[in-house]
Structures are given as C-alpha cells and as structure tokens.
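Possible regression after last week's pipeline update?

I re-ran a chain I had predicted before the update to compare outputs. Posting the input and the new output here so someone can diff against the archived version. Not blocking, just want to make sure nothing changed silently.
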Amino acid sequence: MDPAALIETAIRETGLIDFGDASYRSGLDALVRCLTEEAALNDTGRLVAQGHLHRLLANRLRIEDWYQRHPEIADEVTPSPIFVLGLPRTGTTALSTRLARDPHTRSLRYWESSAPTPPPESATEHSDPRIAAATAEQEQMHAVFPEMYDAAPTDPTECQDLLGMEFRAQHFAGQYRVPAYGAWLLEQDLTGAYRYHQRTLRLLQWRCPPNRWHLKTPVHMLSLQALDRVYPDARFVMTHRDPASVLGSVCALIQVTLAMASDRRDPERIGREQLELWSLAIDRAMAFRDDIGETRFADVSFAEQLADPVGVIERVYDSLGLVFSDRARARMTAWAKTHTRGRHGSYSYRLADFGLEAGAVRERFASYFQRFDIEPEEAA
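New output (post-update):
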C-alpha cells in the first residue's frame, strides 16, 4: 500500500490528473503509513483499505473535473447549514433523519456521499441508478448491525467522506486500527478539510437544490473551530445522553468494524481509546460554545426525543429562528410513526467487556453532566 501507487491507480482509472489543492497529500501519507505500520491488516482489510482510499482519490479527481468544466459551481452558496452534534448513540441519526423530511432542507444522502459525481439532478434524484448500488451496501451493513444501522440509501448519512477526501477524518480510526493516525489528526487544523467539504456540497446542490444543508457526524465536535472558519453562520443541534449508557454500544460497534480489517483483538484498548476520544470531543465542544456563545445552539435530550420526536424539532426550529412548516411537520410525523425505537429488537453491551465502569465514565464526563443537567441511566 503506497500513496504514489494509489494515486496512479486513481489517475489510470479515471483518465484525470488534477486533484486540486495538494493539501490532501499529507493526510494520505500519514494514513497509509499507519495502515502499513500499525493496523495489522488481514487480507480482507488490505483489500478494503485499498479500495476505500482509491474510491476517495477517484472521487476527488472527478469532482475537480466537474469544477474545471463548470467553473460556475464555485459561485454556489451554502447559507446557514445546520450541524447535528452529540455523542454517538444519543439519537443523532433519528433526529437527522427526521430533519431530512423537511422539504426546505437539503441533506447529504448515502448514495451521493459515496459517489458524488456526476452531481445529482432534481429530475432524477429519486431514480438515480446509484441508489440501487447503495441499497446493496446498506443491506449488508444492516445484516451486520441490525440494531445500529437502519438507514435507507436515500436517508441522510454522516459527512465523513467529504472530510475523507482530504484524508483528515476520524472515520478512518474507527475502521482501521491506526491510533497514531488518530492522535496525529487531533493535532491538525482541519480548515482545509472543511473547505473541501463545502466544495463538495456546492457541487451536489448545483443541479439539485435546496441549499440549506443539514449535516451530521459526532466527530465534528473535535474540530468546531475549523468548521466555524468555513461555515461562520452555521447553526448547531446538540443531542445529550448519559455517556455511561452509550459507550458500551460505541465500543461494540468499533470492535466489529476493526475485526473486519484485522485479526487482532484488544477490547480494553478500545474502551480506553473511545473514552478518551469522546470525552475530548465533549470538552472541545463545550470550549467552543464558551467562545462563540449559545445563540447558535439548540440542545435536545435523548429522553425528549423518545417522548415527543416531532415536537422537539419544532422547539429546535423556534430556537434557531427557522420556520417549521405544516408540510415538514406532516412528513416528520409520518416517519416517526413507522420508525420506533427497538423495532428490530434490543441489544445491550456491557462497559465491563471493554474495561470500563459506569462510575469512572461519569467522573470523566463530570463537567458535561453538570453543564447540561444530564440524567444518569442504568448503564449496561
């Protein structure tokens, strides 16, 4: 696995040579070095990682080609995007999927995130052939994670691939055992990655409006200062729940994804790393809020979402100065009625399986509990 070879393969496949700004290369070099030196990839893992990086490089080439042929894409604006933040397993996915039902909001859908070119068009956005290909991938994911992964290819997805084309995304550290890359990334300025994130959004909305985006991934909390430089008018919805009730599930998911690429097992290390990562993410998010103030934030508890999944969004809209239309309410209500929690069964994951204990987790998040009045739950 060599960066130059990956680049040459992408060039050969696409027939294109321009990757745009060369800033992506340092991230690619750092990631490949860690994949080679510390990931302990098995045969499947090597194939998956090579295919993953190749896809991102090829997508970047194709995006730059569209910009060269249609420079007017750069004139597209992305006003006041809404970013959903919060720890994993705190309702961010369900909240994001309800928000996507608003016809005035543009979401990043799974099928266009993994294959953003040719850019979608309004006339064919619901019949695009990429949807069928994405459906097969989604079905495989749902078979592996039935209680964690219940999304359609047309549903909103995390915007990690948009950061991934700069090779600066924590997503890689969740798929491959690359702790040195994860540590390196935490020290990087991700402003360039968010610029490419925005560059991709402009392309995707160019022929397929609207341009009021709603996006989500929990890892945005690690780099909100960089996000704010690119999206200074962004608004944020932050979900909240007892970390001791979610970290076991987070660790279990990471354990499964790592096992696909490597035969090495170390659950206690996963526990330590995930506790440190997400406590740091919360610390950074709170520091960011201290810096910019609270007017651009709306907070949502997990319990609120369960009790009133649509009413809580109406409150969020009111807090952020958005219009909650009757059509949006009807579409969100219809979705919520057919997507109830636990309809695929319930699964529990014990913190102890990953060397963690509820009291210690809550102690690490003590300032978070106090600031947002988090209610302790019965942890697994």
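Follow-up from reviewer: compared with the archived run. The longest strand covers residues 235-240. Marking as no regression found.
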